[in-house]
Every structure is written in C-alpha cells, then in structure tokens.
C-alpha cells in the first residue's frame, strides 16, 4: 500500500495482525483530561466548565427531560496526544522553516493552521505495537532525570522481553515517569528520560512508523533543539504519541499488542488529543 502520510499507510486488518489478539483484553492508554494535569510550555491551559446545567433546559426540552452540556478549551497537545508532521520544522540559514518532505512552512500555513501535513490527513493507526519496558528491564521504578536511552539498550530490552521489531510497527518506550503524572508536574515536564537520535534512527531503520512514550516528549529533557523530534517528524515522517499510559501493559508483561489510535480530523492542527487502546 502506498504511503499516505509520512511513514503511515492506511491500515488493513490482516490475519497476522488479528492473530496478535489472544485474550481479547482491551487496555486504555489515555490519561484522564482534567484540571491539574501537566501542561507543556507554549500550549494553552485546559479549561472545563459547565455550559448548561440540569434544570436550565426548559426552553428547548419538555418535562420531564433535562440535559447538561459543558465547554472544554485546550490545545491539541494536551494530555495523551499524537504529533502531526507539521508540528516541528527545521529552520534554514535564510530563516525559512522546512517541514517533512521539504515543504516550506510559510507556503502552507496561515492563521487558520496548515494547508498541508495537518493532523486531519493522518490515517487511523491500527498496527502491531512493541512495548519496550526500559524501566522494568533495568529493575527500577523510573529512569533517572535527563537519562538518554541508547539503541543498544533498546535492542537488549527487546531481546530480554522476547519481542522483535517489524516493518510498520509502533514502538512504545516505558520510562516509568507515568507515576509522576499529577504528582510532580514540574519534574514530569522538565527533566525526564528518553531516547536520543541514535535510538530513534535504529527504530526507523527497523521499520517503526510510530514512536510512543509515557513522557510529554519522546526525547530526553531538556531538549532545546528537539533533535529527536526533528529526525522523526521532519526527516522520517514518523508521528509521536506522547503522555501514554504504559504501566498496566508493563505490569502484565504485555509486550506485544495491536495499537489503535484514531486522530481527530481537526483541519490544519499540529496534533490531536487521542484515546489510544491496545488489544491483546
């Protein structure tokens, strides 16, 4: 099948993919969206408020029916989300910013968002997912601050878990930092462990088309140049799935599953809030 969005192709439920579902267990990988969750610098705050309360619907609902609605305001990089290919670019010496495929940002963006590479173009993701429980492999609750995970350790972790990579797979990297969610937001969003460019390159070379992690960004923080983002999004067309709940999968040693992610079709957006699930 031809590529439709960077490294992603439109999915098909092939027998070998369905064969990965052995118990029928469905794992939720999303954090709850609520006030007090960690927020990344440069993104708007999450706000949830009642818009219409029960008992206030008399002008359009007849007794005894009653209704309630709410207003939610947030950026698309809030909570568990997937980055679109227009999210990160690489600035050139002349000031131009180049996106995936050599597209100049100035040519495809305006105040309404992006005319190309927006998240509405991302296909549904239904693919084999390999969980690399690096924290479990090291025998620790969570990795140390600023700790870069290298390619050799990812390969050793996969071997210890008895799983391998495959063309078109997703790889989720567990650092253990999920435990800091709403417990230490400042640390969670400023100093976490993650992969470096060598590890990202190894994953791409082995066919990975989505990289996920239990941290707000895939790479080590701080990362002022976002080198891993640049390599995966700009150079490789590989979307990033961030702030993913991986603890339950790791606890049950579910290292192989079917990942399902359905990005919202928000025209021109640089990401989508998502509720990913794993089928095992």
Short description:
Helices cover 18% and strands 24% of the residues. It has 8 helices and 19 strands.
Protein model, in words:
With 280 residues, the chain is an alpha+beta fold. It folds into two domains: 3-39 and 77-279, Glucose Oxidase, domain 1; 41-74, no CATH class. It has helices at residues 15-18, 105-108, 134-138, 151-161, 185-188, 197-205, 227-235, 247-251; strands spanning 3-5, 8-9, 26-28, 47-52, 69-73, 81-83, 90-91, 97-98, 109-110, 113-114, 125-133, 148-149, 170-174, 194-195, 210-213, 240-242, 256-261, 271-273, 277-279. The strands form six sheets. Strands 3-19-17-11-13-15-16-6-18 form a nine-stranded mixed β-sheet. A two-stranded antiparallel ribbon has the order 1-2. Strand 15 (210-213), helix 7 (227-235) and strand 16 form a beta-alpha-beta unit. Helix 6 packs parallel to helix 7 (227-235). The radius of gyration is 20 Å and the shape is globular. It starts with a strand and ends with a strand. The mean pLDDT is 96.
Write the layout of secondary structure elements.
Layout: E1 3-5, E2 8-9, H1 15-18, E3 26-28, E4 47-52, E5 69-73, E6 81-83, E7 90-91, E8 97-98, H2 105-108, E9 109-110, E10 113-114, E11 125-133, H3 134-138, E12 148-149, H4 151-161, E13 170-174, H5 185-188, E14 194-195, H6 197-205, E15 210-213, H7 227-235, E16 240-242, H8 247-251, E17 256-261, E18 271-273, E19 277-279
Helix pairs in contact: 6-7
